[in-house]
Amino acid sequence: MNDADCIAFLQWALPRLERPWSGYRKVRGLIRKRLTGRLRTLGLATLDAYRERLETSPEEWAELDALLAIPISRFYRDRDVFDLLQSRVLPALASEAIAEARTELICWSAGCASGEEPYTVAISWQLRLQRTFPQLDMRVVATDLEPTLLERARAGCYRRSSLKELPADLLAQAFEPRDDALCVRGPFRTVEFAQQDLRTAMPEGLFDIVLCRNVVLTYFAVPMQQRLTQRIANRLRIGGALVIGIHESLPGGVVGLAPWPGTRCTYRRVAD
Question: Assuming Cys at both sites, which of 23, 39, 154, 262 could form a disulfide with 44, CB separation 3.0 to 4.6 Å?
Fold first, then answer.
């Protein structure tokens, strides 16, 4: 298939899955490769034939939806964001939790891909913040739709290229070499991974902080963005933090969130 055919197909299919074309412009080469593989699996020659399959086989839409997941992740992605989490956001949340006589902070990494983001949070907490708040533990829950990615996350072993932005002190203390990979050491394997589709399920309970970066606000259409962002906001404790991607913005109509002063792409849960 050529690029023009791929674009035409995506512009037809994406609205039916409440996904925006704008989120896929720069990754359409990857999607084209995936679509080529899917056509080969189905024994179809063209995207027109695949479109006919979609129109006559509703179950195929789930297969297409899975092809559209974009798992781009690495440790300490967007350094400024994690630096501000450690210097401002997490200490504030920790102080509030202690004042309320709680013994743990609860973090949810939504759309965690292969686990780089939740491990970054867990490692940063243990090595840089827990000594300041020894009476407080952090529980990190991480969810993703794709089981293959979650299998990699649970294995906890990564190529060195995905760790190049992680500060040297965290890398040295939290990872050990194994074959051609670097693997998370046992004491830092505390993340709870679960397979969930954000559109239909979310972890139980209230959260002190939710990281939902480059998932809802990039790869879903605005009405879906509004619904999911509001649901996520409602799962935050009053005073809790929502972190989105540095190039993302909240959709209109979401209530209960206010910018966290002095931070990037971070919002605080306030009373409605």
Answer: 39
